[in-house]
Amino acid sequence: MKKNFKIFSITLLVFLATFQAKAHHGYPQYNLGGEGMALHGKIVTYRISNPHSYMTLIVVDDAGEEEVWAIETTDTARGMRTKGFTPTTLQAGDEVTMMVAPALNGDRTAVFRSVELADGTILPASGQ
Amino acid sequence: MRVKLKDSFVSLVMGGLLLLPASIVSAQGSPEFDSPEFDSRDLSGVWGAIPGSGNNFNYGIGTPPPPLTQWGMENLRLEAITHAAVGDRTAEFTINGVPTNTLGSNYPGKDCEPLGQPANLDYVAFGPMEFVYSRSGDRIIQMLEYHREWRTLWLTDEHPEDIYPSYMGDSIAYWEGNTLVVDTTGFNGLTQLTQGVGHRPSDAFHMVERYTRVSYDRVELVMDMYDEKAWGEGASWSGLAKTFALMPGERLQEFICVPSEFAAFDSALEEAIQ
């Protein structure tokens, strides 16, 4: 019974996370006007692409559990380059702190604002 | 005395050198100062949004299109759109009652489909455009970075009789003084008209663009649009203006919208969770 529940939970999580990821290119579900929130974790995926770039990030929650966040940028590939990102700026396993505008409904999806790399570099730089 | 003259000469040269870059900067930033000479009929080069002026994005901010006719409501109206309504970024509905800011609904270029015109001219704010003059002298090519679209502006005064409907339409262009007038018709009606507008154009959609190089580094565009099926006979969406800035040394970048990019994102997410 417990095993079935676990399988069900994982399936549900995958479905919900995938659904959110496919809900690309619409921002009404995000708290864009708020202060934002900080996510500290490890990069899983980082892709500069058009019309928007994206990342996934593993974050350890307060209970010590790993959770995956899907982060979408509002920038095109050109926009990312202008802000100082290259295809190798972030790599899988990199530990970073990201400022994001989270989903209003508490889902683990967010819009990217900035990232602090392990060496202290912040992108995009202030004012960009 | 000789030393003083020499010093003066050196100061003059140094001062000139210092002024040179300043004049170049001012030519790019403020057209009223020391603007390099330019040919008003030469639009070649890469043009984008004016730096620091916002994104110069939507035709319709403050100028909504005419309301749809009954036929338009029945045949062209979209169920819902993402992003903002024309004229008011916080509006919940367009003037035709189409819900805005609806997650997963329509926007120009959704699912990597073509934006076409006039939508793509709104997106020059995110990806610049380039005018390329053909050596044959019979056409100007307008390259649009966003979604890697392009159109041919044929330098003639008549459309062909057998236009095959298309996303970009058939464009002819001619000069009225120093203004390049581009007349486009023959659209296939498969696109969202543009950002924030909750309907498609009909096959009667017709647009007229007027490009004027007002200074070395600025091109002004004024657009008039007509669609007697969508908006009724005599109705127009007129006077829509944009200003583009010359981007010296800029190159168009590769912008290809790839559906599998999103699939890869989904897969990566699923793998990460599992």
UniProtKB/TrEMBL annotation, chain A:
Residues 1-23 form the signal peptide. It comes from the Bacteria. The keyword Signal applies. InterPro entries: DUF6152. The lineage of its organism: Bacteria, Pseudomonadati, Pseudomonadota, Gammaproteobacteria, SAR86 cluster. Pfam families: DUF6152. The keyword Signal applies. It comes from SAR86 cluster bacterium. This is Copper-binding protein. Keywords: Signal.
Automatic annotation (TrEMBL), chain B:
The keyword Signal applies. Keywords: Signal. It comes from the Bacteria. Residues 1-27 form the signal peptide. This is Uncharacterized protein. It comes from SAR86 cluster bacterium. The lineage of its organism: Bacteria, Pseudomonadati, Pseudomonadota, Gammaproteobacteria, SAR86 cluster.
